[in-house]
Amino acid sequence: MYGKSLEDFRRERDMEVAEFAMFLGISTRTYTQLLQRDPTIPENTLHKVASRLEVAPPAIIECFPLPSSAAVNQIRERLDQADAYGVIVFDPERGEPTEERITLPPHTMSNKLTMVSRVLITFTDGANEDWRKLTHNQREQARRLLRALSISPQGGWFWSTDDRGRKLWIVSSSDTHLVYTIRYTRHDEVVVIASILIFPLPSIHEYEEKYPYNL
User: Fold this and answer.
1) Cβ neighbours of residue 164 closer than 8 Å, sequence gap 6 or more
2) pLDDT top residue among 89 and 116
3) What is the CB neighbour count within 10 angstroms for residue 194?
4) All domains of the chain, ordered by start, with CATH?
5) Distance between CA atoms of 17 and 7, rounded to whole angstroms?
6) How high is the pLDDT of residue 17?
């Protein structure tokens, strides 16, 4: 899957926060703001940090593009529909949606179980429509991500929250991105794929051409 946190990069280098911030060429205060995804941080700072780490900015979770209000509204509508009419079960082994539809448990802010017997991957109707429009390569990318989520639903990273208080997570691979939320039944962890987005993530070379830095 695509993307690592700044903290992952820091720990890989076995650096303290102040040392790592100095390595990135920023203050510790700016580093903290980056971790908090402070929207006031200039775009060129994001590119400078990414360049120091020799990756494109979207490969850093804190620099990954945030969703537009229109995108969040669409996802909210899809999840509302899923609450009303249920979701479609996806079979990670076959790599295809099934004909089975299940009713979602009510959304609450904290209902995670300490013991989960299985993980269910499901699609909203909107995500199922997205699936049908994918190219062969995009479906293969999505299948890899879905298999990973069936093993570790927390494998993605926090992306946003809708106005119902539902946390939205995202996992990415090349140009294919899955937006999802998680529900819990008495025994199951239910991953609800709300949307499958397609947009390319430029390479580090493309960013360096636009934002050259002397490292």
Assistant:
1) 76, 79, 80, 107
2) 89
3) 27
4) 6-64 (1.10.260), 69-198 (3.30.2310.20)
5) 9
6) 96
Residue 130: both structure tokens together: 């997205």
34: left (phi over 0), alpha (psi -120 to 50) or beta: alpha
> Mind spelling out the 3-state secondary structure of the chain?
CCCECHHHHHHHCCCCHHHHHHHHCCCHHHHHHHHCCCCCCCHHHHHHHHHHHCCCHHHEHHHCCCCCHHHHHHHHHHHHHHHHHCEEEEECCCCEEEEEEECCCCCCCCCCCCCCCEEEEEECHHHHHHHHCCCHHHHHHHHHHHHHHHHCHHHCEEEEECCCCCEEEEEEECCEEEEEEEEECCCEEEEEEEEEEECCCCCHHHHHHHCCCCC
- pTM confidence score: 0.82
Amino acid at 101: R
Q: Which residue is listed with tokens 């076959």? A: 94
CA–CA separation, 63 vs 57, rounded Å? 5
**212 vs 51: which has the higher pLDDT:** 51
Token code pair at residue 23 = 């390595």
What pLDDT is attached to residue 205?
62
Q: What is the model's pLDDT at position 156?
A: 87
- Rounded mean pLDDT, 95-112: 78
Per-residue pLDDT, 215: 37
Residue 115 CB coordination number (10 Å): 5
